[in-house]
């Protein structure tokens, strides 16, 4: 029997293996980190048989130390591989990785969200506004781009399909432009008429001149009532804008496409359309300064006008009534009464603290903005 000298025991405590090399920031390809190098002293002894020699015997304490070192090295290798692996891989059929998919590095930042192009040309194409109206906005109104709140207001759910809209914004914030774009889109797509309701004669004259220049190059195919009875075909013609207030014009809505009028004249026009059973020809009603609903002398006429429009397009019995959609601020879902049945009501005001309440009454979408193009400064004397 040959006696051999036992190997010296490993050092205690065992040396800590060097850390894994740091992962490079911004790497786009998958890099597998090599396992950390082990020192000779930290390597566990492996029992082997060489030249017929039996393996050296180890004490229980030496065996436990060797097992702990082996487990620590294995855990270091696993952590190094996990640090180099991507966080997610594109999946193919049945949850398997696609053969042509590229691994994604965990350090890659997410792609930034696509910005909304607010130029008047891009928004005109997205909203379906005719090109002549877009050109007139740039030439006549000197508008090159929309404000963000205007774009969000126009893109509220169902508004472009004919859902009513109630919105509030400070003075000079661009409320009128939202209504003019909706009216132009309605004239070009739905081939109906529009009614613009304003509180004062001076505003009626000003808005009438503005819309005449804005819609001058827009053409519609519509024939007069007498020509329709004779069976004459409709030919394209420019949009006709009429100013109605006081004794200047009667409540005749046959010879124009857009009527700009006061509250009293608008009430007469709606009454005549109801009496002649022609209310279906009215596609949009724009109400400026809708807070005048609470006016003690004229508010009842405006409320009657809107109530008749609501009653004329009431849903069939048995269908629910949906509330207003606050564009992220709560409200019910887009329901039966919000569907484009007939007349779209566009109501706006600069001082409307209960916009959501009025929108619920009109079954309309609602938007409240506090944007001011010019900062408001207050001074105390």
* Percentage of residues assigned to helices: 25-40%
Q: What is the arithmetic mean of pLDDT?
A: 75
Write down how many β-strands occur, each being a DSSP E stretch of 2 or more residues: 9
Quickly give the structural class: alpha/beta
**pLDDT < 50 stretches:** 27-33, 40-51, 87-113, 320-340
What's the gyration radius in Å? 38 Å
Taking the alpha carbons of the first and last residues, their distance comes to 114 Å
Query: Major sheet: size, sense and barrel closure?
Result: 7 strands, parallel
Summed up, the helix count is 10
Overall form: elongated
Strand content: 5-15%
Strand order of the largest sheet: 5-6-2-7-8-1-9
Tell me what you see in this structure:
The strands form two sheets. The chain has a seven-stranded parallel beta sheet, sandwiched between helices. The model is unreliable at 27-33, 40-51, 87-113 and 320-340 (pLDDT under 50). Helix content is 31%, strand content 11%. The N and C termini lie far apart (114 Å). The protein is of the alpha/beta class and 381 residues long. The protein contains ten helices and nine strands. Strand 7, helix 9 and strand 8 form a beta-alpha-beta unit.
